[in-house]
């Protein structure tokens, strides 16, 4: 004969003792916030590494009137002289090995300028030659490169992107620090809310806990019962909050995608297709987002364990 | 075996008058003691010390070969409590649980196998006359039924020490006699039993040594 046992019940009835709904909703809201913060931080980091990291090794050199001979002193010499662009290219060939020097073709130049000038191929503006110099990892351009080139080929402009990259990196780092601070604050609030909910649960179940304690329940049993309950609620809230955050997050990355692209070619003016979005979200951010509900559950579990065990110390 | 040496207990650390003062007595394993005294004498307080619900403010208390006053680790006290069966004056059942679940609790907390629990709970509840009330919520029981459930819960796991605080208050006379016979039998089988009561007829029925309290002091140790 089966006994009319109501399962593995111990009378704590925690589903009625803990302020479930408010804990669940609050954790969901905080996870939402944490997911957005995490996204912002990842976005800032991605952009900074792509821009700043790439930019540090990149020089852009503009040579005006590229097809004029180097020094048009006498008309007879005209054909014997190299063009100004070729002269600069020859100078750049003396840079350390591993350096890539590439003069943009007419088409590349046109594509670069299309957003600003329309069909650049037909423009009457005299376009300079644009030479991209990509230094090998860890290499630095000679400090006097611009003077040397300008002396040799007057009117040559060297744009060094290192300053730009330092500033970008500083900006990204302060953004990351803000994000870390925000995440820590959210974690702190989650801890406090769990602690308050546990306290409320403990005070409504005071008599029951004392009976269980008297019947020989261990601290870890009682703390565990509370902790799995709040941990489970926090896991559910964390899942909901993170899932809800996916909508604004995808939109954000969809908008950021063109700027995050690493190559000139990919930086098209049209936005990428929705279907390509999973490729756009950085892997470490997906890992961070997936971890969020578990972090929430862990915070709930640990806080409750601590609270209940401290409370139980009043009983011998 | 129980041994108290100069045990005093204050409800609050700074309370001026102790609830129990300077108690010293011994009960051997398998001994039976009545705990007598007027209302307010401290019977319930003494039983709660013996149940390790509180610790003495002074003196030493040894229970089932453990000195609970020697800064004993919590886990030792837990295991000690698991070997004690207590019938509280106010029953202290879990109101939301069925009779069977209430009685199963001590065994479940000790992780006994579920089929063993089923057998023990069924037979003990049949014995106290609640064989047809297994699934009823404790909050719906009459006073007598609650008391019998509390008694079943206190003995179901075969404790080495049984403490009963006015366990026959809500019982009819035949039930009270039946309970007394069982306590006496358990004690002859090696369980230490202490029963606090007002019921003089009951005390006369079973002549055993009595500990008599008055205003927190032991005025008679019949051993
Ligand atoms: N919850 C309580 N708070 C304060 N004093 C109490 C409480 N319960 C009992 N007392 C006091 O403690 C003393 C001992 O009570 P108790 O142990 O219940 O005696 P008994 O069980 O013999 O009637 C009495 O003076 C009583 O008034
Ligand atoms: Mg009493």
Automatic annotation (TrEMBL), chain A:
GO terms for biological process: cell division. It comes from the Bacteria. One of its GO terms (cellular component) is membrane. InterPro entries: FtsX (IPR004513). The chain crosses the membrane at residues 22-41, 175-197, 233-253, 285-308. Keywords: Cell cycle, Cell division, Membrane, Transmembrane, Transmembrane helix. This is Cell division protein FtsX. It comes from Acetobacter cerevisiae. The lineage of its organism: Bacteria, Pseudomonadati, Pseudomonadota, Alphaproteobacteria, Acetobacterales.
From TrEMBL, chain B:
The keyword Nucleotide-binding applies. Keywords: ATP-binding, Cell cycle, Cell division, Nucleotide-binding. Residues 2-223 form the ABC transporter domain. Coiled coil: none annotated. One of its GO terms (biological process) is cell division. One of its GO terms (molecular function) is ATP hydrolysis activity. The keyword S-adenosyl-L-methionine does not apply. This is Cell division protein FtsE. It comes from Acetobacter cerevisiae.
